[in-house]
Amino acid sequence: MAAPRRRTVRDLRRGNRAVVLSKLYFDGPLSRQELGPLTALSSGSISNVVAELVADGLVEEAGSVDSDGGRPRTLLRVAPRSGHLVGVDVGETRVRVELFDLALGELARVDEPLPEAARDGRCDAKDVVRLVTAGLTRVLADAGADPGSVIGVGIGVPGIVDASGAGGAVVHGQTIGWDAVPLEAMLRAPDGLPPELAPDVPLFLDNGAKTLGHAEMWFGAGRGARNAVIALIGSGVGACVIADGLPYQGASSSAGEWGHTVLRVGGRACRCGARGCLEAYVGAEALLARWREAGGDWTAADEEGALAELLEDPSTADLLDETAEYLGAGIADLVNLFNPERIVVGGWAGLMLGPRLLDQVRRAAASYALRHPFAQTTVELGHLGPDAVTVGAATLPLARFLETGGARSSPL
User: Fold this and answer.
1) What is the mean pLDDT of each successive set of 10 residues along the chain, which is 412 residues long?
2) DSSP code at position 277
3) What is the pLDDT of residue 68?
4) Closest residue by Cα to residue 92 from 118, 65, 53
5) Distance between CA atoms of 144 and 126, rounded to whole angstroms?
6) What is the spatial distance between Cα 334 and Cα 376, in angstroms, rounded to a whole number?
7) Which of 250, 277, 308, 373 has its CB surrounded by the most CB atoms within 10 Å?
8) Can you say how many angstroms the Cα of residue 178 is from the centroid of all Cα atoms in its chain?
9) What total of structural domains would you count in the chain?
10) Are residues 199 and 238 in the same domain?
11) Does residue 360 contact residue 321 with C-beta atoms inside 8 Å?
12) Which structural domain range is residue 341 located in?
């Protein structure tokens, strides 16, 4: 058994920077005097760390406040323009790329549809790489951003992300026809990321539902909860399970495939190849298919527009009632399995359906769940809107940046 590595002065310095930077990021602006008790660091350590962070351009003054009888206290905050973050949402019908400042203020955005074949479950990973690359080039140009200021690129994808191998993250996306697609290696290839980006720019890939969960837990409806489930309802269905404040990954990062839990034995065919999955009843693609089978139709060219037409059609009332009961039953399963204090429904389709169906969903969940754990759970809509997946993707490089005390690509 190897002996534990001893902490060095460099480790201590990096840890102190990380503590101060994170506290300023999430709770700032704060004065030096306020940072002391909040971080448990001495006033001398606070002064040294703040001086370093200011010299590095990562922290800046943000005004002052009066103190009790003394000199005004200078407030400090993380400098929003000290770096850029990229969030990418690889959806099942389009790729969205957004450029953010360090405070996650949006600076530029590009939406590009995937080829029509992707809608039939035949998504070519080369098309995704091409659209991500083109999107990165465009957002950097549109914002006039220095490519060297990019701290990292976070990418949310449909499917299971396995980052355990030496060759980078591999994606298993059964519903889109991906079987162990080496997406990170493809992005790192010479025809992958834009040449203006540093070749070692950090890349972070994760399931889209998990990036949504990250965003809602940091900035949205999940904030403050220790045990929660963030549900994504879009074309398909997924979830991010938070256990004691941390995302639950499972043995190979595939935990949270809530959409492929069986709701009805021998039920509707699901895109994954099984039958009766929750996704086959409440995902936007399946909901539209059920409407068409009932004689409905729409004029919109995309799923978002089609779902809006479904919601406006009075003849779909029974279909929506049934959908609310299916979703409520699925939420009851989450309550019984994980005993969360909060369940947050997000994703573009979830946010469209929510205002119409949420009360019905709560009633259905109450009728299917065990009474005691359900009484401890709230069910609510996400707060961050349809951009939550890209915001969450951008938090992946941001988290590493804060954890390393503001290091760019390598630890201090």
Assistant:
1) 61 87 91 88 89 91 73 88 95 91 94 74 84 94 93 93 84 85 92 86 93 93 94 93 88 79 94 93 95 94 93 96 97 96 96 96 97 96 91 95 79 36
2) B
3) 65
4) 118
5) 27
6) 13
7) 277
8) 21
9) 3
10) no
11) yes
12) 223-383
Distance of CA 15 to the CA centre of its chain: 26
Q: What are φ and ψ of residue 258, in 5° steps?
A: -60, -35
- Tokens (6 digits) for 99: 């450029």
- Is 217 a member of any domain? no
Tokens of 251: 């043995």
Strand-by-strand arrangement of the 237-243 sheet: 246-247, 237-243, 228-233, 342-346, 378-381
The pTM of the full predicted model, rounded to 2 decimals, is 0.88
Check whether residue 62 and residue 121 sit in a common domain: no
pLDDT at 412: 37
Round to the nearest angstrom and report the end-to-end CA distance of the chain.
Answer: 28
What are the distances in angstroms from CA 90 to CA 22, 25, 295?
Answer: 28, 27, 31
**Which of 34, 58, 78 is the C-terminal boundary of a domain?**
78
Task: Tell me phi and psi for residue 387, to 5 degrees.
Answer: -90, 5
For 157-221, give the DSSP string.
Answer: ESSEEE--STT--EEEEGGGTEEEE-HHHHHHSTTSS-TTS-TT--EEEEEHHHHHHHHHHHHST
